[in-house]
Amino acid sequence: MRAGIEKAGMDALEHDHVFLGTEHARNERRIWLVIALTAVMMVAEIAAGTVYGSMALVADGWHMSTHASALLISALAYLFARRQARNPRFTFGTGKLGDLAGFASAIVLALIALLMAWESLLRLSNPVPIGFAQAIAVAVIGLAVNLVSAWLLAGGGHVAHGNHAHAHHGHANHGHGDHAHHAKTGDNNIRAAYLHVIADALTSVLAIAALTLGSLYGWHWLDPLMGIVGGLVIANWSWSLMKSSGGVLLDVVPEGETLPAEIRGAIETEGDRITDLHVWQVGPGHHAAIVAVLTSQPRDPAFYKGRLSGLEELSHVTVEVTRAA
Length: 325
Hints:
Blueprint: H1 2-13, H2 24-52, H3 55-83, H4 97-125, H5 132-153, E1 160-162, E2 174-177, E3 183-185, H6 188-217, H7 222-249, H8 259-267, E4 273-283, E5 286-295, H9 301-307, E6 314-323
Parallel strand pairs: 5-6
Antiparallel strand pairs: 1-3, 2-6, 4-5
Helix pairs in contact: 2-3, 2-5, 3-4, 3-6, 4-6, 4-7, 5-6, 6-7
């Protein structure tokens, strides 16, 4: 009987470390849909270009294959994170895998921007004949595909909510617990996929504008110039994504983050003082914290975790209590 009670107590204390955002499954489905749409258009453009002898269509089709490959990074990250979410080898779960994929996608975006700018510079110095009507048709098709893709991805990554519940637990001077929350934290993986789509759409818009003006006024130089502008804009997006995803991977506390101050405000009352505090993101909408408390009247860690129960962004809390000399 006693063994059964002890086992029940241990079961109540045990908890998992699944720190995936609540939009995880929906975001994964959306990205696979976008990949399928892109793949269909890729095959259609290559086939049509081959049948009708259009190198512009063939080139755009192969360009879309690289676009689909980049999106595949995000899709596989969601898939792996979901399947390995309860793997104990991942100490704090797989919630950060999306940020790793986002960082990789940011590098791909930067390479795309570099290649766009370089190719445009070559075209400026060595102009080539342009089939304006055909090129505009390809750009319009590409823009339509990217607008549909952006619509599919819209809303999935700008505000990702994470909900996770754990049983509170602790012992004499050390313990950790969790509570349900509805924190608003961006999902860098879906953001990366969205930026890939928007970057491609921007390229199409700039191309349509440049080609239209070029066909009307003979401004052949405008097409490569727009390529350079597009490359600079995409490079800026890449840098922004690299900073946000890289910051999560390195456990950087973002500028303007109020959670550490809120933890101090909740704990440092009645003479209690925090001597060491670490806060980091473990997944979209999920943060972990290690809190070392110095006090003249030590209490159970569960007491201090209770003070933090109103901070919905905290999913995993470890409290260490030390008696003041």
